[in-house]
């Protein structure tokens, strides 16, 4: 028991000694945490203001994309059995500091690759590109960066799809994106887009009265553009809301740390003063 | 008083019931969507006229399911006796078996938002550019001419 007590005393005095020595250190750390809090708070406000616009873009893109989904569902379009040529398009963005949104997309891509081992990958946004390069660098055929800074526009999506169509024909195209579920959650999701041949071979296509043979071909292209656009809009909204939450948490944590360090700083300062007083009084009393 | 309000409620209920039944049989559910905005989302309307590639067509409820490409032109929406007109830049129309109709287009504006004189000046310029030796400029201008000519006929 005595030994234990001695140990504790030793530890306490050691901690105290460290505290005295680091008064300035605590001060600088406190300052830097305060700065970080300012930054995260600002980023949170920026994300909050963008969120409204992003959500609006996402809602309208959903309505826009819905007609394609309904059509494929009604026509019961499916990729031909044993199709070899699959393309995976993974949509995220270039910027981090938004929680697990990019790494979850990376996991989704890996899962998709294990399902379609021969698939090629196109990445939209640097964050997925880096993850794909690490795990499946041989499969990456095309990548885009610089997207997701502003609310995605249809023009952007069209330009991207223009480049993607230059890669050649694929039987099945899978668009991976982060689906916006609510302002606190998102879900990595997949949308399937089919080629003209697959649409023409749909089991229930006869339900529809299609006059022009070209229609399905154009539809296949437009559906891809729409899916990429909808994916970008959803991904952007999820990212912004994830960033808002991440920055909110960061600000809260910084606030906690500031509280802790302020108390520590004040205690240490008082201890230093007390110690100096003790020194002075001891010195003065020894003169008597 | 209680009885009266109760009766009022039953009346409302009955009316509401009749209305949904009637609408399910006689009206279309229209979605008119652009990538950046939605004009109508599953709105119940009587008739929709669209400028399809294969010719202009009027679509009523219980229309045979179709998928058609649209030319630049006027989409006319009839709700009862009210009619509203939108000029669209081309796109797709799809009618599903459940009488829902979806029109997707990149741009759409109400027809009265256009000014005839501006259209005219733009058209002359586009026609001039269409004869350009630069292939890209000529192709862009010929699309412009197509849209503007459709717009001119729509405005007259």
Automatic annotation (TrEMBL), chain A:
<dbReference type="InterPro" id="IPR035968">
    <property type="entry name" value="ATP_synth_F1_ATPase_gsu"/>
</dbReference>
<keyword id="KW-0375">Hydrogen ion transport</keyword>
<dbReference type="GO" id="GO:0046933">
    <property type="term" value="F:proton-transporting ATP synthase activity, rotational mechanism"/>
</dbReference>
<keyword id="KW-0496">Mitochondrion</keyword>
<dbReference type="InterPro" id="IPR000131">
    <property type="entry name" value="ATP_synth_F1_gsu"/>
</dbReference>
<keyword id="KW-0139">CF(1)</keyword>
<dbReference type="Pfam" id="PF00231">
    <property type="entry name" value="ATP-synt"/>
</dbReference>
<keyword id="KW-0813">Transport</keyword>
<keyword id="KW-0066">ATP synthesis</keyword>
<dbReference type="InterPro" id="IPR023632">
    <property type="entry name" value="ATP_synth_F1_gsu_CS"/>
</dbReference>
<protein>
    <recommendedName>
        <fullName>ATP synthase subunit gamma</fullName>
    </recommendedName>
</protein>
<dbReference type="GO" id="GO:0005743">
    <property type="term" value="C:mitochondrial inner membrane"/>
</dbReference>
<keyword id="KW-0406">Ion transport</keyword>
<keyword id="KW-0999">Mitochondrion inner membrane</keyword>
<keyword id="KW-0472">Membrane</keyword>
<comment type="similarity">
    <text>Belongs to the ATPase gamma chain family.</text>
</comment>
<comment type="subunit">
    <text>F-type ATPases have 2 components, CF(1) - the catalytic core - and CF(0) - the membrane proton channel. CF(1) and CF(0) have multiple subunits.</text>
</comment>
<dbReference type="GO" id="GO:0045259">
    <property type="term" value="C:proton-transporting ATP synthase complex"/>
</dbReference>
UniProtKB/TrEMBL annotation, chain B:
<feature type="domain" description="F1F0-ATP synthase subunit delta C-terminal">
    <location>
        <begin position="114"/>
        <end position="152"/>
    </location>
</feature>
<dbReference type="InterPro" id="IPR048938">
    <property type="entry name" value="ATPD_C_fung"/>
</dbReference>
<keyword id="KW-0809">Transit peptide</keyword>
<keyword id="KW-0406">Ion transport</keyword>
<dbReference type="GO" id="GO:0005743">
    <property type="term" value="C:mitochondrial inner membrane"/>
</dbReference>
<keyword id="KW-0999">Mitochondrion inner membrane</keyword>
<dbReference type="InterPro" id="IPR020546">
    <property type="entry name" value="ATP_synth_F1_dsu/esu_N"/>
</dbReference>
<dbReference type="GO" id="GO:0046933">
    <property type="term" value="F:proton-transporting ATP synthase activity, rotational mechanism"/>
</dbReference>
<keyword id="KW-0139">CF(1)</keyword>
<dbReference type="GO" id="GO:0045259">
    <property type="term" value="C:proton-transporting ATP synthase complex"/>
</dbReference>
<dbReference type="Pfam" id="PF02823">
    <property type="entry name" value="ATP-synt_DE_N"/>
</dbReference>
<keyword id="KW-0496">Mitochondrion</keyword>
<dbReference type="InterPro" id="IPR036771">
    <property type="entry name" value="ATPsynth_dsu/esu_N"/>
</dbReference>
<comment type="similarity">
    <text>Belongs to the ATPase epsilon chain family.</text>
</comment>
<dbReference type="InterPro" id="IPR001469">
    <property type="entry name" value="ATP_synth_F1_dsu/esu"/>
</dbReference>
<feature type="domain" description="ATP synthase F1 complex delta/epsilon subunit N-terminal">
    <location>
        <begin position="28"/>
        <end position="99"/>
    </location>
</feature>
<keyword id="KW-0375">Hydrogen ion transport</keyword>
<dbReference type="Pfam" id="PF21334">
    <property type="entry name" value="ATPD_C_fung"/>
</dbReference>
<keyword id="KW-0472">Membrane</keyword>
<keyword id="KW-0066">ATP synthesis</keyword>
<keyword id="KW-0813">Transport</keyword>
<protein>
    <recommendedName>
        <fullName>ATP synthase subunit delta, mitochondrial</fullName>
    </recommendedName>
</protein>
């Amino acid at each position: 028991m005595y030994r234990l007590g001695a140990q504790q005393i030793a530890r306490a005095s050691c901690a105290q000694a460290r505290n005295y020595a680091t008064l300035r250190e605590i001060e600088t750390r406190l300052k830097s945490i305060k700065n970080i809090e300012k930054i995260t708070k600002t980023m949170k406000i920026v994300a909050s203001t963008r969120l409204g616009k992003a959500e609006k873009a996402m809602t309208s893109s959903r309505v826009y994309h819905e007609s394609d989904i309904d059509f494929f569902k009604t026509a019961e379009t499916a990729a031909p059995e044993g199709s070899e040529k699959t393309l995976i398009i993974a949509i995220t963005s270039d910027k981090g500091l938004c929680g697990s949104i990019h790494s979850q997309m990376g996991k989704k891509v890996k899962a998709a690759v294990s399902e379609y081992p021969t698939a090629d990958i196109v990445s939209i946004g640097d964050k997925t590109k880096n993850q794909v390069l690490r795990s499946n660098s041989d499969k990456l055929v095309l990548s885009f960066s610089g997207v997701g800074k502003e609310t995605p526009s249809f023009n952007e999506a069209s330009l991207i799809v223009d480049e993607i169509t230059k890669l050649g024909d694929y039987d099945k195209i899978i668009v991976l994106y982060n689906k916006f579920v609510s302002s606190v959650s998102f879900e990595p999701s997949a949308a399937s887009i089919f080629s003209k041949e697959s649409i023409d071979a749909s089991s229930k296509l006869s339900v529809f009265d299609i006059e022009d043979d070209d229609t399905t071909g154009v539809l296949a292209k437009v559906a891809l553009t729409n899916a990429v656009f909808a994916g970008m809009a959803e991904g952007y909204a999820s990212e912004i809301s994830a960033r808002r939450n991440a920055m909110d948490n960061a600000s809260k944590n910084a606030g906690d740390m500031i509280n802790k360090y302020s108390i520590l700083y004040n205690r240490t300062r008082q201890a230093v003063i007390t110690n100096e007083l003790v020194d002075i009084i001891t010195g003065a009393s020894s003169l008597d | 008083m209680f009885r009266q309000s109760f009766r009022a409620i039953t009346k409302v209920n009955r009316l509401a019931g009749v209305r949904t039944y009637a609408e399910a049989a006689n009206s279309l559910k229209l979605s008119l969507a652009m990538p950046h905005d939605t004009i109508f989302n599953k709105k119940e309307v009587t008739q929709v006229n669209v400028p399809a590639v294969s010719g202009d067509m009027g679509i009523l409820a219980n229309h045979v399911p179709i998928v058609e490409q649209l030319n630049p032109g006027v989409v006319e929406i009839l709700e009862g006796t009210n009619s509203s007109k939108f000029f669209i830049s081309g796109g797709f129309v799809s009618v599903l078996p459940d009488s829902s109709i979806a029109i997707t287009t990149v741009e759409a504006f109400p027809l009265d938002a256009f000014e005839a004189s501006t259209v005219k000046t733009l058209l002359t310029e586009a026609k001039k550019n269409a004869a350009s030796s630069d292939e890209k400029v000529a192709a862009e201008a010929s699309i412009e001419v197509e849209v503007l000519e459709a717009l001119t006929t729509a405005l007259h």
